[in-house]
Amino acid sequence: MIQQILPKVQFDLLFGNSNDLVFYMEKVGDDYKYIYLNAPSIQLLSEDAIGKNISDIMDEKYYQVILENYNLAVERKKQVCYEDYQYRSSEVKKYETSVIPIFVEDKTFILAITKEITFERDLQDKYLFMRSVFFNTFLSTVLVSSDGRLLEANPQFLQDFNLNIEDVRWQHFSDLSIFTPKNAKQFKRYLDEACKGKNLSSKFLSFVDKDGIIRSFTATFSPIFQNNEESFVVGVFVILQEITEIIKKEKELKSTATGLWNLKYAIDNAADMSITDLNGIIIDVNDRFIEQTGYSKEELLGATHQIVNSGFHSKEFFQKLWETIQSGTVWRGELCNRTKFGSIYWVDTTIIPLLDEKGNIQQFMSVHYNITQKKRMITELRNIERMFKMINDNTNDLIVITNEDGIILYASSAYTRKLGYHPDELIGQCYSKVLSGDCKELWKEELLNIDHNVNSKLELIHTTKNGEALWTECNYTVVNDYSRKHGFQIIMVAREITERKKIENQLLFLAYHDSLTQLPNRRYIQQEFPNIIEEAKARNTSIAVLYVDGDNFKDINDRYGHEVGDAFLNHFGRALQSSVRSNDLVVRIGGDEFAIVLTGLVKNKQKRDKQVKQIIDRIKESLQNGWVISNQQFSPTSSIGVSFYPDHGTKLEELLHLADRALYDVKTISKNNYKIYQS
Among the listed ranges 73-87, 460-474, 515-529, 618-632, which one has the minimum average pLDDT value? Predict the structure, then answer.
């Protein structure tokens, strides 16, 4: 007997309190046997699953996907992760499973950990799910805009009428060759009703197919509202169910009684059928009707259709139905029924009054097509639409979708709310419209170099409608545009970081500026000086570095205290800054020592010395004018040492050092003066 590599005690310690589903299994032939389950797994499968194989307790449509990924992990001998969806309780759930293979001697084990992924945060999955519902239905389905243009058609419709979507997209649907003039007018009338927000069902339409044959359909028109507001219809979802054979048999029924049984035979193989007398008593049903309702033929014969009544429809609904068929008119509509076992199902029903040779009604024949799946799909689409709207209305993230040219196709509520725009002001506009100047160029460059199926991140400054700047951190994904062969769309999810950027800018300012005088500090000039040198080289100009020291500053601190001393340094720095040109730089080195970088000086020594002297004279004059602190007048002096680029050096520290040496010489001889370094 092989000892388990993962004992039960250790399994419970590791996963006993986990909310994830955890399964420990042994490979048995082509199957896997459950050995240990944690609490959530037991709740899902029951404790009886332990010791059984996956195929013993799970439907084939589920365990085939599981076996495929388990076998892949064993084959590769490393962890495999996969995702899948399950439909439960009218909602789609998404799961991610990690499969870890374990090999002990000649035995193979699997540790599988399944996590549920919050479906609301994966917008792209919702989009793909809605497209899957639309394109994989067996019913001919089209999406028509509110002005009657064909936006989309599923493969079944295109196959039925031999159409290419690229040839007919954006054409007026009623102008297509599949219509006769009469039916085109009829379709326009139904579309107009749907565009007013009305749901239409079981409307009769005829089309000419690819072989030139006229085919009959019942049509359901479902309006699509913008932002779920029932006052504005943006398109209509049209689902067509063919009833050509039924119509043919209905015509035969009017001409001969024998045709009734031929029609019954045809319908028996295509739909549920029942026949009642004038009082609604069931006198015949086909096998499909029996199978659908769950009742035996004996239970149905002699009863009325009340036996399958679900209680969904009102008394007035059935009263109107009876008035219609008793007048000899065919009734078409959708009915919600209930099986013997309590299950609800929907049917698209046609009730035909059967007439004798004198035109009197003898019986009623009901033909039922099960449309439960169709109703469920429509409900799911509406649920997803509501879910998406709920996410859109409640998230603080700014969500925008553009095409490959940067034209806005969609903007979320948070986006329009924060920027102050109405959706109509943004849809169809360039995304760069809401970006600041520098970010416009950044975004244009990003668009030019964008790749398909890529994820990227960048920081952009948005500008609100009233001109305020809004910093955002943006993550965008490039996806294929399924409405066009070679197009793509950009899904951008942005989060506001304005406050964070303010703090970052404040910290950056503090890092490169003196906290007392707010002047640039030594770190700032070290960073900027290479750029100043490059500009001087490009312009063929000279640079002067002035090392400035306040005379007798220590006496001010000793006599008046540090608070006055700090105020004095503040005034001293402002006086220096007001004395130089706008392109010059004043830096506090430390204590009462300052550095001034004079740029754009001529290289001629005499003219340059004269330029520097003029600025130093202004400094002296500004200091002499002085300032008042705590009712005390201060008119300080300063000593200044000067060095020049490129005469004395090419590096900042070298020029500062030489200017400091010249300053020392000034202070040795006399204060309130300046000296240019002499080598």
Answer: 460-474
Q: How many CB atoms lie within 10 A of CB 461?
A: 18
CA distances, 199 to each of 130, 237, 330, 350, 516 (Å): 20, 10, 20, 19, 72
Q: How far apart are CA 164 and CA 155, in angstroms?
A: 10
CATH code for the domain defined by 274-368: 3.30.450.20
**Calpha distance 351→250 (Å, rounded):** 11
8-117 and 395-501, same CATH topology: yes
Angstrom distance (rounded) from CA 86 to CA 93: 5
CATH code for the part of the protein at 395-501? 3.30.450.20
Domain ranges of the chain: 8-117, 121-247, 274-368, 395-501, 513-676
Residue 422 identity (one-letter amino acid):
H
Asked if 599 and 532 touch (Cβ cutoff 8 Å), the reply is: yes
Contacts of 16 (CB under 8 A, 6+ apart): 38, 39
Report the alpha-carbon distance of residue 155 to residue 385 in Å, rounded.
23
Class of domain 8-117 as given by CATH = alpha beta
> How many whole angstroms separate alpha carbon 471 and alpha carbon 494?
10
Residue 382 scores a pLDDT above 90 = no
Residue 589 has pLDDT above 70, yes or no: yes
pTM for this model (two decimals): 0.36
With 80 as the cut, is the pLDDT of residue 218 above it?
A: yes
- Listed in sequence order, the residues at least 6 apart from 37 whose beta carbon sits closer than 8 Å to its beta carbon are 22, 23, 24, 45, 47, 49, 50
What's the mean pLDDT when you consider all of the chain? 82
State residue 264's pLDDT score: 58
Judge contact between 345 and 337, C-beta under 8 A. Answer: yes
In this predicted structure, the answer to whether residue 9 has a pLDDT above a threshold of 60 is yes
